Each structure stands twice: as C-alpha cells, then as structure tokens.
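Hi W., the magnesium ion complex you wanted:
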Amino acid sequence: MVAHGIQLKKSEQLRAMRKAGLAVGRTLAAMREAAQPGVTTAELDAIAREHIATAGGISSFLGYGAGWGYPPFPGTICASVNDVVVHGIPSEQKLASGDLISIDFGMSIDGWHGDSAVTVEVGEVSAEAAELSRVTQQSMWAGVAAVRVGRRIGDVSAAIQASLESHERSYGILSDYTGHGIGTEMHQDPDVPNVGRRGKGPLIQSGLVIAIEPMVTLGSPVTATLDDDWTVVSVDHSIAAHWEHTVAVTKRGLWVLTAEDGGEQMLAELGVPFAPLAD
Ligand code: MG
Ligand code: MG
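Structure:
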C-alpha cells in the first residue's frame, strides 16, 4: 500500500525485508572483521560481492545514480575513511592503524532492500575518533527508540539531534544528507533528517520501514563533493562517523531488520517493544 507516497508493508513483505536486512547485517559483520591495517577498501568490497552472490541478492549501490546525470556508482559498498563522510568509492587505498572507516552497504533480495552502515576503528584510533563513533551510534539508537506508530518523523529527527547535542563537546551534524524510507527501492519517502522538531513531518504508520542514519563530524557539518561526483568530505577535513539501520515499525513494536539479532538486545536496553514476525 502507498499512502502519500509512503509504501506501507504487509507482514509477508516485512518478512521478505528481514531476509535482505539479515544478509546485509551479516555482510557488514564480515567486513568489520576484515577491516584491519593493510587491507584495501577494494578487498572489503570483494567480501560484499561474495556475500551478495551467496545470498542470491543484487547490490543496491552498484550502478546507482546512472540516469540522473551522475556517474554510476562503481562499488557495492561505500568506504568512507577519516574526513570522507559518506559515499567513498572502494579503492586500492590500504587501511592504516588510526583510520576511522564507515562502511555503508545495501542489497536487495527478491526485490526488497536492506541498507545499513557501521563505523569501524582500524587498529588503534584516537580517543576522540572512538568517542565520535560511539556518540554517532548512540544517536542512531536514540532515533530508533523514538519510532512509534502515531508519532511523526520529526520526533525521530529531534531524538537524534538531542542525543548528539547532549554532550559537552559539540559535533557537526550533517543536515544535507538524511535517512529515508526503504522497501522495493533503496530510497523512498519519507526523508528522515538527523535534525528536526518533534511533532513535525509525516505520520509514522504501521508497516513503515525507514533507514535511520546519522552522519556526524568532529568539526564542521559542511561538506563538499569531490570531482568523482560521489566522495563527500567535510570541508574542514574533520573526521566523520556514520551508523545506519533499517527499522520496521508495527503496532506491536519495532524490528531492526539489519541487526543480526533483529535489535532484541538494544531495544530491551532502551525499553522499546521488540516485535519480530515469526517465519
Ligand atoms: Mg546506507
Ligand atoms: Mg541509507
């Protein structure tokens, strides 16, 4: 069903999305393990390609943008190292101890997409970089915890923003890139901004699936896109982090489709009902 441009999923469609989400989560776990000093981001991309083939999936990223005047994205992951905030292209660049890399990955299975991102500390990173990743991940979960039938997208945005603004140190919260609805396409309505006001924006209805993905820097939230038309860097070259999960909401609660445990542990900690659907 599509209501005001928003695709609401039925139970069997949520089960199909879980299949894709779980495959995405497991692939990211494998890449996270592999992201060691000396490994190239192209090698991480190769791991993703293997997992897509094994799962019988299709990359959501490879070739993305073709037809809208962008060069088709050449990777199956976005590998964004240090001051690259998002959309970094996998390359022969070797990871080094101290790098902070965000890996963003999506695939579809049977036409249903999953989309998730993790930030990984390569070797020993600075305390500041580790803290940046931690607070970014925490803000993602604060956004997840705000998702409830009857609330509005602005409640999710405001929760992410409030979480990031609750620290003594200030962080750069990107506002020119957002989370999004997801289903039979990777990017659907509604946009899910990382800053916003409670009570504003589209209504959250049962069957909504959204990708929640704060992108945060240690400095300026202003970004620039490199000449490859993809790589987004912070203008002040401050280090960035990015965490993302695909989350389904029903009247009974939440199902974090891209978390290996469906979100069970974190939702329990956050006091939010965990509502997976049985096979
Ligand atoms: Mg993503
Ligand atoms: Mg996304």
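The chain has a mean pLDDT of 97.

W.
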